[in-house]
Every structure is written in C-alpha cells, then in structure tokens.
Specification:
The complex is a heterodimer of chains A (369) and B (279).
Chain A (H helix, E strand, L loop, with lengths): L3 E10 L2 E11 L4 E5 L6 H9 L6 E6 L2 E2 L10 E4 L11 H11 L4 H14 L15 H13 L5 E5 L7 H18 L2 E6 L2 H7 L2 E6 L2 E6 L1 H6 L4 H6 L6 E11 L2 E6 L4 E4 L11 E6 L4 E5 L5 E10 L3 E8 L4 E7 L9 E6 L5 E3 L17
Parallel strand pairs in A: 3-8, 3-9, 6-7, 7-8
Antiparallel strand pairs in A: 1-2, 1-4, 4-5, 9-10, 11-12, 11-14, 12-13, 14-20, 15-19, 16-17, 16-19, 17-18
Helix pairs in contact in A: 2-3, 2-4, 3-4
Chain B lengths: L5 H34 L3 H5 L12 H9 L2 H32 L5 H10 L9 H11 L5 H25 L3 H9 L4 H12 L1 H17 L2 H6 L7 H7 L1 E2 L2 E2 L1 H21 L1 H8 L1 H4 L1
Antiparallel strand pairs in B: 1-2
Helix pairs in contact in B: 1-13, 3-13, 4-7, 4-10, 4-12, 7-10, 8-9, 10-14, 12-13
C-alpha cells in the first residue's frame, strides 16, 4: 500500500510563497506526473514529499502515517535526481547497495537485491565500474537501480530525463513506463515536458504559480481543460486562442463573434455567460481544417509551413493580426503568403470566459479547479 | 616589425611566460638557496665581501648546533604541535564548513567574512591577555597550549578552504545519501569526505605548513619544554652577536622537514590550492 495524502500544503522561502496550499491524493500504483512551467513549484512540491525541504504548514500522510516532519530516510521513499547524484567514489554495485548497507541488511540479501535490480535494468556488466566510466543513460539507470533495491513505497523522479539527448530520452521514457508496470509501484514524476507527462502519467497534476490548476488523466486534460492555462499548456503545438465576444448564450449553446471576423455557434452550456462578454475561443491545431479562401468565412494568410512528413504545421495570420497554428496533412502544398480559409471542428473547440475558466459542455459536471 | 605567424607568436608567448615564471621562482628560491649555502661556510666566509659563491664547505656549524641544542627535542615538538593542531582544526572545520556549504542561510556569507576578519587583527594586540589567560590556565610552555592557539588562528582559513571545496560538491549527492538513510555523521564520513578528499588533503597540508612556520606565539608562549623549531632558531640570534653561518645552519635544519614534506606533496598542494580558481 502506498496512498499519499497532501492537505493544504504550503511552503515559503524567506517570505516568498512557493507552494500556496496544495491538496492532492495519490493512490497506490499510480503514476502521477507534476507538470508546469519553470518556477511553478513542482520540484519544491516533490522535495517537500521527499522531506528534503521543511513544510511551512499543512500535512503529508503516507497511508495512515503522518510523515510531515519525518526525516527523509524514514519516509520509505526513494528519489531519482535530475543530475543522477550518484556517489562518484563508489562502484555501481556500491552505489546500489549503499542504502541497504546503512539499513543493516545482511550481505547475501544485499547481493541478491542488487543483482536482481541490475538484471531488470541490464546493468549486470557495469557493476564494478565507477559512475564516471558510464554514459548518461547508464548513469540514469544506476540512479533508478539505486532506488529499486530499496523497494520503497513511492518512487520520486525529479526531471530524470532532462539531461539526456532526445533519442535516449524517448528510450528511457519507455523503460520507465515498462518499469512502472513491472514493479507495480507508485511513482511521482516531475517534468516541464508535457509530452513526458502525457505519455507516462495515469494522472497529471498541472501546477502553476504554486497551486494546482487541474488534476486528471492525460486525455481529460486534453479534452476537458478547466481553464485557458491548462488548455495552452497541454498539447503540441499549442492550442490557438482567439479573442471574441459573446453574441448570444444560453444553456443549449453559445454564439461567439470572433474579433478576426467569423461567427460560430458552439455546443456549450452558456448559462453563465452574458451577451457582449469578452471571451477567448480556443482550438487545437488538429481540430482545424484548411480549405480554399472562398469556402470559409474564416480567412487567413499562410505564414511559414513546416513539413514533418506525416503532418504539416501551418502558421497562419488572421485578418486582425492574431496568429494560430494549424495541423494539415503531410502533403499539404500551401505557399507562403497564400490566402486560405479555415474550418474549425466546433465539437472540439473550447471557450474561456474573461477569467480564463472553461465554459462547460452541456450536462458536464462542473470540474473543480 | 615583421609579422609573426600564429604558430610563431604562440611559441614566443610560451617562451616569454615560461621565462617569467622561472625568474619569479628563482627570486623566491634565492634566499633559501643562500641560506643553505651559508650554512656550509665558516663564519668568516659568511661575512666576506663580496659574498662568495665558491668556498671550501664545512660541517662545523652543524656540529656546533648538535653540541649546543637538542634538535630532535625541538623537531618532535614541532611535529606534535603541527599535527595536533591540524587534527583539531579539521575536526572543527569540516562540520562547520559542511553546515555553511549545504545549509546556507542569509548570514552564512557574513559569518565567513567575520571569521576571516579575525585574521586581520595584529596578534601582538592580544598577546598580553592571551599570555595572562595561558598563565592562569597553566598552559604556558605546554604543547597543549600551542595546539590550542594554532588551531584558533588557522581555523578561519581552514573553514574557508574546506567550505570552498564543499561548495563544488553537488548538493544532490548528499540529499541522495540522506534519502538512502544516512545520518548526518554517515553522510559526512561515507560520502562527503571521500568525495572531498583532494581538497581536504590540501587544507591539511596548508595547515601543517602554517603551524610549522608559526613563530610569534611559539616564541612568546614557550620557554624550553614545549618550544618548537622556530623557537630554536630564534635562540641563535643571541646577545653574543649574530653568527650568520650558525644561524643559517639552524634555519636550514628547521626548514628541511617541511620543505621535503612540501616537495613530496606539491602535486596535491597545487591541485588543491587551484581547485576553485581553475574551474
């Protein structure tokens, strides 16, 4: 069992509030990812859970045990650091057995556990090397191995892949996902990379400015962001935001007049909106179709197009100067400066009120921010 | 002026810098060289004008010293006091530097500066109070007394040095040890010290050298039983007048152990002292 319960957690450094009251429940066997822009407090939150920083107020419970003020060593957690933090003077085997040695586990048991972890991570042939004789990916694996041997209740990862090159990052990401299934462990993972968050997580926690914006599965965040911040943060390329005004709104739908011209009717619950209220219209690049200029009221000018093979990202400029990105087919042949029309898939478009809160779908339960 | 190729100008630069380095090194070494040379002269040769570079060497000064004073008594005192004070200093400096480097607060920097500022005080300014304290505590002319005073005067430099080395060690490694279950003592002994051993060794070497060469306090606080080599040297600048050759010989004897020691450990010393600077 490893259920982590965080209640009203706050942390300030010399009068600056970093974590501003966080409530979070992490269930046994979950892979939870903290994601957010730099400075959002995600690493601090992880370090508070690890016990490397002192909590200013609030509580952390692991199962039924209050670990708010417990020493890091006694929390039954293991952490993998961004810099790997291997002991440079010890061999790989020593690095992995250090915690067990300190805990007074007997020699045969230590060897068994280290060999087991080395086998899972394919480190067997490196056990007698020192960290400096390893590549980045191997060091990362040793760091993970060091936490595996302890069978902790929760694994903590602090941006573990950010020092690796792109190809290795993808490979290690897959290994981590596999490891999560093999070990059936609870894992908390911090990253600023929303692709890592989307691909690894059972549950993503989006943090911004020291508080939680939204908690949900990757697809929940993608399809039902509760506010403009989450909508803009999740998804690559980013969701396009266009300014507009409410023309008509009721429980069954919202009619929006965009500043750049077109008018759209969205199947959203507009009972909270008033006519004339400024809103932000959001649509993801993949929910927009490019067509001929005279086939749509939404006319734009093509700027740069990026051909990625399977897709083409078109950067376009609306008539009032607003810019957005459109994902077109791989063979799309639009030219720089060409006039084209856009047709958004209205069922997948989002609307945010003046405060950035998402306008809900009809009948959708109101989501807590 | 004719143009030099890049390669030529690089070579010229190397030669010039190399020449300059040799010049400085020779200038620094010359007094030591002259001291050793003089120690093998007769008193008359030592006074000769112009100074003689070539002469008939003699061991009479060394024989004289061996007859007059017990070199090994003083040398042993120097060894005990230097190593004792260095050990005591390290025992205090390591935990102090550990907490300053890894648990930094707003006041850490000013504490460090304040510690260093005590080195700016002229020692003679506190001679009388310290003499009286030592007298009351029965520490005059004891090795313990010198160990205490040397530890205190070298501590700021040792803390500062160790702090600088510790600062270079990533905090993550110690945090990893903490999560692995290490107590603060285990963290220091099993992780921090092995990683920082290069820097610590340099600190130890520097402390040994400073203790060995210290003269002010040893002259003022010892008479005979705890007197180190510096006191022995001083006893040769006597009211009978200056005997340059004998003084040179005794100085050579006093310097020799630490010079040999420094020579043997120079690699470590240079690497340690330039640790922060080169990176």
């Amino acid at each position: 069992m490893a259920d982590l319960t965080i209640r009203n957690l706050k942390k300030s450094f010399e009068d600056i509030d970093i974590i501003k009251g966080i409530d979070l429940d992490i269930k046994d066997h979950e892979f939870v990812v903290f994601v957010g822009p730099s400075g959002c407090g995600k690493s601090t939150l992880l370090r508070l859970i690890a016990g490397l920083e002192e909590v200013t107020s609030g509580s952390i419970h692991l199962d039924d045990r209050d670990i708010t003020d417990v020493a890091p060593a006694k929390r039954d957690l293991a952490m993998v650091f961004q810099t790997y933090a291997l002991y440079p003077h010890m061999t790989v085997r020593k690095n992995m057995s250090f915690a067990l040695e300190l805990a007074g586990v007997d020699k045969a048991e230590i060897d068994r556990k280290v060999d087991e972890a080395a086998q899972i991570l394919e480190l067997g042939h490196l056990l007698d090397r020192k960290p400096k004789a390893l590549s980045g990916g191997q060091r990362q694996r040793v760091a993970i191995g060091r936490s595996i041997v302890r069978h902790p209740k929760i694994f903590l990862f602090d941006e573990p892949l950010s020092n690796l090159d792109a190809a290795l990052r993808v490979q290690m990401r897959l290994e981590l996902a596999r490891l999560h299934h093999e070990l059936k462990a609870t894992m908390i993972y911090v990253t600023h990379d929303q692709v890592e968050a989307m691909t690894l997580a059972d549950k993503v926690v989006v943090l911004n400015g020291g508080h939680i914006e939204q908690v949900g599965s990757p697809l929940e965040l993608y399809h039902h962001p509760v506010n403009a911040f989450v909508a803009g943060f999740i998804g690559t390329p980013k969701m396009a935001f266009l300014k507009g005004k409410v023309k008509k709104a009721d429980r069954a739908g919202v009619t929006v007049q965009l500043d750049c011209g077109p008018e759209y009717q969205l199947p959203l619950d507009g009972s909270r909106l008033k006519a004339g209220e400024p809103v932000t219209f959001g649509m993801r690049p993949e929910h927009i179709e490019v067509t001929a200029a005279d086939a749509s009221p939404f006319k734009v000018t093509l700027d740069v197009t990026e051909h990625l093979g399977a897709d083409t990202f078109c950067y376009v400029k609306a008539q009032n100067g607003e810019t957005l990105t459109v994902r077109a087919g791989g063979d799309y042949g639009g030219r720089f400066g060409e006039q084209v029309g856009l047709i958004p898939d209205l069922a997948h478009c989002h609307l945010f009120d003046e405060k950035g809160r998402a306008v809900p779908k009809p009948g959708a339960p109101a989501q807590a921010a | 002026m004719s143009m030099l190729t890049l390669k030529q100008s690089r070579r010229l630069q190397t030669v010039l810098i190399g020449g300059l380095a040799w010049l400085v090194a020779l200038a620094i070494f010359f007094p030591i060289f002259w001291m050793i040379l003089t120690s093998f002269k007769t008193e008359i040769d030592a006074f000769a004008t112009p100074p003689q570079l070539f002469f008939t060497p003699t061991l009479e000064n060394y024989v004289h010293i061996d007859a007059r004073s017990d070199y090994f008594h003083f040398a042993w005192n120097s060894v005990v006091i230097s190593f004792g004070s260095t050990l005591a200093g390290m025992l205090l400096a390591v935990p102090a530097a550990y907490s300053m480097a890894f648990f930094e607060t707003k006041r850490t920097k000013s504490t460090l500066l304040w510690m260093l500022s005590t080195k700016m005080l002229p020692p003679v300014g506190v001679l009388v109070p310290i003499y009286l304290l030592f007298k009351d505590a029965g520490l005059l002319d004891t090795k313990t007394g010198l160990v205490i005073i040397y530890t205190l005067i070298n501590l700021p430099i040792m803390v500062w040095m160790v702090y600088t080395y510790f600062k270079e060690i990533p905090k993550d490694i110690l945090e990893a040890a903490r999560l692995d279950g290490a107590t603060p003592a285990q963290e220091i002994v099993r992780v921090l010290l092995p990683i920082g051993k290069g820097g610590l060794a340099s600190t130890v070497l520097l402390s040994l050298i400073l203790c060995w060469n210290e003269a002010f306090w040893s002259l003022n606080l010892t008479a005979s039983s705890a007197a180190p080599l510096t006191a022995m040297v001083a006893s040769y600048s006597s009211p009978e007048g200056l005997f340059w050759a004998k003084l040179s010989a005794v100085s050579t004897l006093a310097c020799a152990p630490i010079l040999i020691f420094g020579w043997l450990s120079q690699k470590q010393l240079v690497r340690g002292l330039s640790f922060g600077a080169v990176k």
